[in-house]
């Protein structure tokens, strides 16, 4: 799957989210708000990354809760990556996928908190996940682990804040930020608006390069 094919599928997911899942049954049923596209985007992103890594020994977990406890913690903490990757029972990648920047225009405190969180996670002596099928699985945490936040569209963000956040992420040891497109938003309604979408190829390249490097 190429970068453009990935984004085209995201655009299609936005379009599908505007329709009634089960049709209108012949009645005048109309949907106002769109369904959430984030779940489809997470599934698609997992395939995109899996194809780039192309390894059968890796395990990919979409929206899977992971618990951990440090020596000083009495209660375990739960976090849920949009995509986690495991290699030989070791957590190697922690991705969060954001459709755009509308959820948090000022990322500064958020990114700093995530940087600290990764440090605590690396220090944990008890990390596990639990599924209905496999039950509980104990895992380790790679010392190379970073928090990789992937923003599909930076169209509705403040440019000045965007540059500050990119610089901040670059200065943090455990955080990598990638904004894959800019210009027009991926959730558009006319064909002309697609022409405004700008592919940030450097961000795509860095995403794949960083992701591969973590496995070495």
Structural class, judged by helices and strands? alpha/beta
Number of helices, where a helix is a run of at least 4 consecutive DSSP H or I residues: 6
Question: What is the arithmetic mean of pLDDT?
Answer: 90
Global outline: globular
Structure summary, number of beta strands: 11
Low-confidence parts: none
Radius of gyration: 19 Å
Organism: Leeuwenhoekiella parthenopeia
Protein name: Restriction endonuclease
How would you describe what is shown here?
The longest helix has 16 residues, at 38-53. Strand 8 (147-151), helix 4 (159-171) and strand 9 form a beta-alpha-beta unit. This protein has helices at residues 3-16, 38-53, 108-123, 159-171, 191-194, 201-215, and strands at 58-62, 66-69, 77-79, 83-87, 90-98, 126-131, 135-141, 147-151, 175-179, 181-183, 197-199. It has six helices and eleven strands. Helices cover 36% and strands 25% of the residues. With 216 residues, the chain is an alpha/beta fold.
Offer a concise description of the structure.
By secondary structure, the protein is an alpha/beta fold. It has helices at 3-16, 38-53, 108-123, 159-171, 191-194, 201-215, and strands at 58-62, 66-69, 77-79, 83-87, 90-98, 126-131, 135-141, 147-151, 175-179, 181-183, 197-199. The model has no long low-confidence stretch (mean pLDDT 90).
Features:
alpha/beta, two-stranded antiparallel sheet, 36% helix, globular
């Amino acid at each position: 799957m190429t970068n453009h094919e990935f984004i085209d599928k995201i655009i299609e997911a936005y379009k599908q989210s505007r329709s009634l899942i089960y049709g209108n049954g012949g009645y005048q049923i109309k949907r106002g708000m769109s369904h959430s596209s984030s779940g489809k985007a997470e599934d698609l992103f997992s395939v995109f990354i899996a194809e780039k890594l192309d390894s059968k020994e890796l395990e990919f977990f979409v929206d899977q809760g992971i618990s951990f406890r440090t020596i000083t913690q009495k209660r375990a903490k739960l976090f849920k990556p949009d995509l986690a990757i495991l290699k030989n029972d070791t957590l190697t990648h922690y991705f969060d996928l954001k459709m755009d920047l509308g959820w948090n225009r000022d990322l500064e405190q958020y990114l700093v908190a995530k940087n600290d969180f990764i440090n605590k996670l690396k220090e944990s002596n008890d990390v596990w996940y639990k599924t209905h099928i496999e039950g509980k699985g104990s895992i380790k945490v790679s010392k190379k682990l970073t928090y990789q936040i992937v923003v599909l569209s930076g169209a509705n963000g403040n440019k000045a804040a965007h540059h500050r956040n990119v610089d901040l992420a670059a200065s943090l040891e455990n955080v990598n930020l990638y904004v894959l497109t800019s210009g027009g938003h991926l959730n558009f309604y006319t064909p002309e608006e697609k022409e405004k979408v700008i592919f940030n190829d450097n961000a795509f390249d860095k995403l794949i390069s960083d992701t591969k490097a973590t496995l070495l």
